[in-house]
């Protein structure tokens, strides 16, 4: 599949700070791709290089085959960006702001008007079209940021924390709008601190830490790496239970607390039937069974914490 974003050995230094330290990444065309990382990992720097706000120190960055520096105009015209900060002209009615933006990208005045109406309707704030940005509520401001990113009908939509500070209802509405765009073929690059957001929306995520890509995988693949708890409630407290850990190397631990048995295992969904069979064989009656899966958040915290440990060890050696 063709790449919407193609990154090779990308570096960026701000003085002594190595914000990006040799990033290689391919974001497939049409995908919903998440860029996750703790504060200061380099996400905004990465995005700013793609849209030409920051100059890279080394390496290559292409958007739909266009080099972000040598072919800046072509690359930039493919991208719609909704940044974290509200960098909007506050004194004009929002529809005019959109028309100016469209004009800047070479869209005719008549088309710009039509598109402005269309995107304002799409994000649900068309009735506010004559209002100044300053007078919108926080949630409406977020919607407007998305509308502005969409005004050029971009092939690549970059969303930097698009739901920061919005209520649950609006978050769900924004998710729906973005998912719909992705279903129609727009490639999405999303950064977020709400790991649940990435888990729900993204086909693939890259975990970035200290300017390096630690991992690229689907949320499911990442969650498979964590351990799950298979919690079995038995009718009667057993005197002994099968030693699941000895028989199956996916099992990490077995704990018995009265009639409650907890088997901690990788790929809990696949281990659970074996647990049930073994208990059944030994005539233990099962009253209830629940599998609690590791969340992407737990895997993310574990991975980025391990990296911290590694960094400390590297310094100490
Ligand atoms: N203009 C700048 N001058 C100096 N250092 C900078 C500049 N911009 C970013 N940095 C540094 O580069 C590193 C990466 O910052 P960046 O903003 O890209 O991270 P981030 O992953 O977007 O963080 P956050 O999640 O907090 O927004 C940080 O150490 C930051 O302090």
From TrEMBL:
- Does ATP-binding count among this protein's keywords? yes
Q: Start and end of every ABC transporter domain?
A: 5-235
The record's PROSITE patterns line, in alphabetical order, gives: ABC_TRANSPORTER_1 (PS00211), ABC_TRANSPORTER_2 (PS50893)
**What GO molecular functions are on record for this protein?**
ATP binding; ATP hydrolysis activity
Name the SUPFAM superfamilies for this protein.
P-loop containing nucleoside triphosphate hydrolases (SSF52540)
**Record Pfam families:** ABC_tran, DrrA1-3_C
Record keywords: ATP-binding, Nucleotide-binding, Transport
Keyword Transport recorded: yes
Name this protein carries in UniProt: ABC transporter ATP-binding protein
């Amino acid at each position: 599949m063709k790449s919407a974003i193609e990154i090779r050995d990308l570096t960026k230094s701000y003085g002594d700070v190595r914000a990006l330290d040799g990033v290689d990444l391919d974001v497939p065309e049409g995908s919903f791709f998440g860029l996750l990382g703790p504060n200061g990992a380099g996400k905004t720097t990465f995005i700013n290089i793609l849209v030409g706000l920051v100059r890279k120190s080394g390496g290559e960055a292409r958007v739909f085959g266009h080099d972000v520096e040598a072919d800046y105009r072509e690359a930039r015209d493919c991208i719609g960006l909704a940044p974290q900060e509200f960098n909007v002209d506050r004194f004009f009615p929002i529809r005019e702001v959109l028309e100016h933006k469209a004009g800047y990208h070479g869209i005719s005045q008549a088309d710009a008007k039509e598109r402005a109406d269309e995107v304002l309707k799409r994000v649900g704030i068309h009735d506010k079209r004559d209002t100044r940005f300053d007078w919108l509520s926080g949630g409406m401001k977020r919607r407007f940021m998305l509308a502005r990113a969409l005004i050029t009908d971009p092939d690549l939509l970059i969303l930097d924390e698009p739901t920061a500070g919005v209520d649950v209802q609006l978050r769900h509405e924004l998710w729906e709008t973005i998912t719909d765009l992705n279903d129609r073929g727009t490639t999405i690059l999303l950064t977020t601190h709400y790991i649940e957001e990435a888990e729900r929306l993204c086909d693939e995520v890259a975990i970035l830490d200290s300017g390096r890509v630690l991992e690229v995988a689907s949320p499911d693949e990442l969650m498979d790496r964590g351990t799950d708890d298979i919690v079995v409630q038995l009718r009667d407290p057993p005197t002994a239970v099968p030693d699941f850990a000895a028989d199956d190397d996916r099992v990490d631990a077995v704990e018995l607390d009265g009639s409650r048995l907890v088997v901690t295992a990788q790929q809990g969904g696949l281990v659970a039937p074996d647990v049930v069979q073994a208990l059944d064989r030994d005539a233990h009656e099962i009253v209830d069974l629940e599998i609690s899966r590791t969340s992407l958040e737990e895997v993310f915290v574990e991975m980025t914490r391990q990296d911290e440990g590694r960094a400390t060890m590297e310094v100490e050696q």
